[in-house]
Structures
1.
Amino acid sequence: MSDMHSESVGYVRETFLSEKEPPLQETGLFKWVRVNLFSNWFYALLTLAAIYVVYVLLSGFIPWFLGGVWQADSIRECREIAGGEVGGCFAVLTDRWYQLLFGFSYPSDKYWRPTLAFVLLFICAAPVLFPAIPRPFMILTLLFPFTAYWLLWGGTILVPLVALAGVVAGYVVYSRLVARSFAIGLFGGVVAAAVVWWLGGFVSEAEPRFLALQEVASRDMGGFMLNMILGVICVSLSLPFGIVLALGRQSSLPIIKWICIVFIEFVRGVPLITLLFVANVVLAYFLPPGTNFDLILRVIIMITMFASAYIAEVIRGGLAALPRGQYEGAESLGLDYAQSMRLIILPQALKISIPGIVNVSVGLFKDTTLVSIISMFDLVGMIRGPILASTDWNGVYWELYGFAALLFFIVCYSISQYSQWLERQLATDHR
Amino acid sequence: MTKTILLGAVAAGGLIAGAAAAATLDDVKERGTLNCGVATGLAGFAAPNASGEWEGFDVSLCRAVAAAVLGDPSAVEFVPTTGKTRFTALASGEIDMLARNTTWTFSRDNDLNFEFTGINYYDGQGFMVPTELGVTSALDLDGATVCVQTGTTTELNLADFFRKNNISYEPVPIETNAEAQQQYLAGACDTYTTDASGLAATRATFENPGDHVILPEIISKEPLGPLVRHGDNEWGDIVRWTLNALIAAEEMGVNSTNVADMASAAGDSPEINRMLGTEGNLGDMIGLPNDWAVKAIQANGNYGEIFEKTIGENTPIGLSRGLNAQWTDGGLLYAPPFR
């Protein structure tokens, strides 16, 4: 062949030319800039305008941030130190750091307790959040609410222990009886738990000093800690309640169905702030003077009610999105209602609902700042009330609200990133 | 379960409401602390400091009452209230008294069933303008733009004042004091109007307070005072006379440094003796130990000392006594005699 080839063509190249660099404007940064920022005159104009805006913002922000004063006792001292130069007064953050995090009346030598509870939160939530962690570690998650209560509120360890014993007793009785019927199991479990709590009440009252931490009243909780307490408790409670409500709304028993519908529609039709005012103000009229139905507990109940109604609707959306065949398939396998829900329907419905649930959770976490309106000192309440009203710091706005925004952004962005990761993990659809 | 609690609470509340009204003093003594409603934070009047201790002008009154009743100025449970929650907190019995710079008005006294027990600060609405405008009187403000908080009596007083003097203005409605500060500094309005004490506190936070001046005209009456529930006159008397004792102490020259001396033995002035309990039995008449006024004065000093310490001219708030001077100095403070 080669002979023929050499005869038929006068010249053939026998080596490859070495590759040339692509032209400068077709590669790397240049290409990216040209294609993305200056592809035509209109985009070029927009780019220049955007660069100008960024420049203006940064030229204001950077000197303000770098020239900031971090050590001073009052805004006047801040201004003296800055000496007429531009500079934020970040000294308010260092001066009131613990107040921003824990409120102003949490005992200062006990700050380690909420800090420890915060660290434990991550350790104990991990087994639920990450499927890779072995199942037995779930026991940590179950123990966390009781440990956290003891750390935050203090008092004798018997109170959370009795609560735990009640839950365990309830579960044991439930698992014995559930073979006969779900309703009997549930009823038996609740009764067993109530009996243990009632009996345990005498024990913990008799020994109030047994392994006791110094008690801290709910009124003394504040700062970002209060936002975290409300956010974590209400989100984790509203999820199960939301599922029950969503299933209840689809129930074929009219009374359950109507109770759920009325509850959901009523709560969704009322602004959260109204519910909070009810919790704070109206309940005080009904309770006899002197009885103190814990304010945080009242607020938790109201926020949980609010959030579960929303989550119920999100989950109902997930249930409705499942094809009818899934329900029929579950029935044709001979599964009863509880089994079909637990094994077939809910895993799929919940997966579909993740973005909606996360949406509600993030919104709920931010809504916890509304408690500042009913004179609780959460992070925003601390800033609006005591800190801005003190003669030392009246007039510092950007630094304080910026700090609050930063804390909330960190938490909300992490939740959102986690949920996206979870969606990718659970993705089984056909692509 | 919540339902049964609620039902029980309604029933019990109905029974106890009548009984509780008459025995606030006993409740406070049994509890060992005074529940005192204060603002969630108002510069100079009530705010927790860096170590979480409440301090301020209104707070000092709570401490004085606690000292008079319980002998201990720190036996106070401060209940922070907002403008919206303050009256329900008092009406429902959550707090025993409210000291939250609340204006004494006819409807609050009668319609809301409260009893104002005196006036601890005479306030009034004023104007603040930048010095460079060269305005020296509110009557020069013809055609000015005025920053004013919406939905307040301030707004109504403003309209009245300008109509009465037949001059025109343009209101710039704003929501909060913080927003007002920003708007005013940014030049969105020529003048900012609110209570004079608020103006002074606001001006104190400016970078150059000297560039702004508060005009001499005060266009409304805002008498601020502590209040209690209707129906328990003994308790109302205690709060009223504790305040009177602080005011009278200043008038008679009794202060926190010399009160212990004066109370150790009867002195030359019969009225001081009666007030401090070295003579007569005024304490018995209001159900308190005879040295109640001594304790109240020891808590934070007399009225003048409290004023100087919290909002006076040497503090960043920098208020002058003005109307709040003793009647002997041309002010309005006039405590009835201790006899």
Note: Chain B touches chain A through 48 residues (CB under 8 Å).
2.
Amino acid sequence: MSEKTPQRVNDFVVKLANVNGTGSASANGLLMKTIFRMGVPVTAKNFFPSNIQGLPTWYEIRVSKDGYQSRSGRVDLMVAMNAQTYANDLAEVTAGGYLLYDSSWPRDRQLKRDDIHLLGVPLAKMVNQQYSDPRSRILFKNIAYVGVLSALLDLDPAVIDEILDQLFARKTSLLEANHQAVALGRDYALEHFECPLPIRVEPMDKTKGHVVIDGNTAAAMGCLFAGASVGAWYPITPSTSLMDAFKSLCERYRIDPETGKNRFCIIQAEDELAAIGMTLGATWSGARSFTPTSGPGLSLMGEFLGLAYFTELPLVLFDVQRTGPSTGLPTRTQQSDIIAAAYASHGDTRHVLLFPKDPEECFYLTVEAFDLADRLQTPVMVLSDLDIGMNDWMCPEFKWDDNYRPDRGKVLRREELDSADSFSRYLDVDGDGICYRTYPGDHPKGAYFLRGSGHTANAKYTEDPDEYTDLMDRLRRKWETIKSYMPEPVLHSRNKAVAGVLACGSSDGAVQEALDRLEEQGVPMDYLRVRAFPFNEQVEAFLAEHERVFVVEQNRDGQLKMLLLNESTATREQLISVLHYNGFPLSSDSVITQIQVAMSARGAAA
Amino acid sequence: MSFISKPKVGHPALQRNELGLWQRDYEGTISTLCAGCGHDSISAALIQTFFELSIEPYRVAKTSGIGCSSKTPAYFLSQSHAFNSVHGRMPSVTMGANAANSSMIFVGISGDGDSLSIGMGQFCHAIRRNLNMAYIIENNGVYGLTKGQFSASADIGSTAKKGEVNNQKPIDAALTAINQGAGYVARGFSGDKEQLVPLLKGALRHKGMALVDIISPCVTFNDHEGSTKSYAHTREHYHQLEQTDFVPPAEEITVSSEGRELTPVRLHDGSHILLRNVEKDYDPRDQAGAFAYLKNCQLRGEIPTGLLFIDENSIDFHERNNTIETPLIDLDHEDICPGADVLAEMLGRYR
């Protein structure tokens, strides 16, 4: 090929195409971590199938000296390890880029593109000579390509060695073989290619004080620190790893030192209906309790969500959103449960939603979710997604304030009840719509009958139209109070902004990068990242200040936009949807293109 | 239903229990069920049971689902905490409440629709977990609140009020519970309080899942001729496997067996159920034998009552789960939050 590849130091994308179940995940993780430890900002997205073994899977590493977290839409180096997907993988490489393939067998007919560089390495041949058992041959082929890449991308071999030493500290038998496999690949590359490539890593100092972590683990840490003691769940991708992480954290940090017994209770339920029932039984009893789920589970939990809203029980629910509708694409991401969550259940119901943007916010907003659920006595749903929940993100290290004490809200315990004349569960004593609650078994005066049927201020059964209306109106007043407790949106203003952009959750990275590029093109825009529903006055103020607002979201129907139209003063003419819903995480180029198209269409119309 | 509330005054001659409470302290609000409903008799038996066991009402958590049965927690123990949940989901709510505060006494009230149709899954899984609770099914073979549809416990050949004949096989709550491994399975009849009260006492004192399936005729929709859940049919076909007495922990077991075999069955807190066998060869500790016997009775249209099965060595959920004795809600924040230093250490793995 004639084209010369421009230098892209610390600013490129490596995509690895693998076969599911071949052990590529650990090799790819090793690669990412090496770049991170070299001080260079990096993120990774795993595109995996709903399958245990055999289907194609991809891992996309973005190295970004500027710290951009989203996908960029380009692929500078494709590591094509899956013959099933050669054709598409080849097509995806950006012109001037590279494709690394296993040249143990002739592939020439499949690899026809003359605007990219092909790098053939006989990986299978090499590992087959080195290792005798079939499993090692499969596993070390992956580690061998890490060796190849270490030479091509100029990765520090000492950092790779250090990570391997830590990983296999307890399995020394594997350690030597891993080092060998890295050397095998590295030596081949140094001998056969001009190393390093123009796309390469140069050490920086930009990852200090950071960690690489997934959102489900971060949320589980939040549950641990917020003091959740009961968790109930039913396994469902992509939320499963949240409870897995909580369990292993509890087994490490919640064992009573004297008795060796558990200071927690995790229940794997028979379905999501039972999972949320258990969670509500526990919060009724006064424990902090949560249930993680995903789309189909949220649908099943609908009836209980209405009960929790109407009887005013705290509840923390994690919805790690995946691609719907129905079973949809279970291992792909989306933000398509917004409406289902906001209005879950029959009758007049509405629920608090929180939108973390990354694992760091999963940690902090989880702690806040528990405080809010207790304070507001209503379900609080943390709407994460597969991209946040299951991918590794680079985040600042989480901090914990040892002075933190849970805000349990308006609860009357033994002492208060002792001196109280009487107790009415649903009496609006303070005028903010939030009443006082008690825990079962605390005190005879605290007993009340919790029911999903019509109830009076004294928690007695009623079908009386006035008493019912009073209750519904108080819940509406309470909703107004709730607004004042919602985490504030994050505003990014730019000089002479020509329009506003509004988004939530994992769209943040792509939006931020897109807005940087658009500003360079002379189109500066203000950006408000909404962190909660109901929308508060800052959201209203942003809408009031911008004639045009692009609403960026990852679903087909513009659910965040629907919610804004329904629950704020935004008008139809004002809001323009920027949508992305193919199941892969949002990329910045898609945001840029859609905004450009919409701007020029508007411009032409005007 | 009656609509004149009874004033809560006790006659000085009435007995007080060990806590100094009258039986009336264990009552609830006036029932809104039909006059003569079997469920009201069960509420009365529960009132007597809790009174005689001298249980502090506020230490009891009453849970229920939806249906006539599930309304009844309002009609006993008004000083107790109650959670009237959604249809068929009482077991999960009870599980969560028990996970958070294992020190409470849990009594769940359900019906044949609530447990054997919409809630069949939760019913079986609560047993599988051996949740420590008394699980009461007020079984009338019919959907009362929706006016008379057959439930899953209706027998083949039983007729509805308007003549329709049920032709689907019944699900037997007690057989299911024994099969799933419940540690305490009893059957009673709402019309026989003398038998029911000791069975309920045993259920409350058993550590683990205690199912009490109670035939409780629906006077409005299922008490006619042709129904196999009517008062008349039940009286004619039920027979006691054994006479049952409940002996509290401190009391001595005195034997006056009147020539019949007497078996004391020890419960977890040291109390005993005393069984005087009526059915000579019936052994409620033999799971397979009990199942076979009861299955045969079912096929013959008989309704055996009494303590059907007991596993004296039952291990409840928390024991198996290794949960700390202290109720989780009583743990201090310091006991469950690892703190800033640990967080820093934890994050070390992610660098």
Note: Chain B has a mean pLDDT of 93.
